Amino acid sequence: xxxxxxxxxxxxxxxxxxxxxxxxxxxxxxxxxxxxxxxxxxxxxxxxxxxxxxxxxxxxxxxxxxxxxxxxxxxxxxxxxxxxxxxxxxxxxxxxxxxxxxxxxxxxxxxxxxxxxxxxxxxxxxxxxxxxxxxxxxxxxxxxxxxxxxxxxxxxxxxxxxxxxxxxxxxxxxxxxxxxxxxxxxxxxxxxxxxxxxxxxxxxxxxxxxxxxxxxxxxxxxxxxxxxxxxxxxxxxxxxxxxxxxxxx
Length: 249
Hints:
Distance between the termini: 23 Å
Radius of gyration: 19 Å
CATH topology: outer membrane lipoprotein receptor (LolB), chain A
Strand content: 35-45%
CATH architecture: Clam
Helix content: 10-25%
Number of domains: 1
Mean pLDDT: 87
């Protein structure tokens, strides 16, 4: 079993799992909604008390991939203090990447890496730009749909009736200014209660599409329990993100 370090954080509580459904709107009302209204209704479903902006959470995520079925990540996010860290084991080596406000740090087997140690930084790819990319990625995906309501995300106005892997959905498009994340995505919501169903690259036949499965209840929020990744070109399965532990700090 992988043992993780827990830098700069103290654990307070553990969250349970649950799923939830809501009463549907009628089709005429849904057809008249803008993309912004759909997003706001989804945020109301997932975060009715507006907890995400001040959330401080620890995630242990089983992330099996076809090429790496044993991958496991421990992620810390503190949105109030703007801190982040991720622990991941590569073979027998435990690597920690982190950010305190705008300052990056890294540890290898719990030993702080000197910024002048360029050989270790190159070996484990510990440059600050890459760590910032990790933070942007995990903050976006762990916080969706709430993390879409930021200046860096531009919503296109149209709402389209569509489906995601055979499930009926309302689809909107979002453009991102962060090049690490990608330029434009489709976002899918359940008709009726506006639960987030999935998302993926908008470009035809490009990148991946992610389908969400289940919910985790934590600190008044309903976060996705699992993400399943598929190749948009041939619909082949690529891997999953399974939330083993979600805790409030």
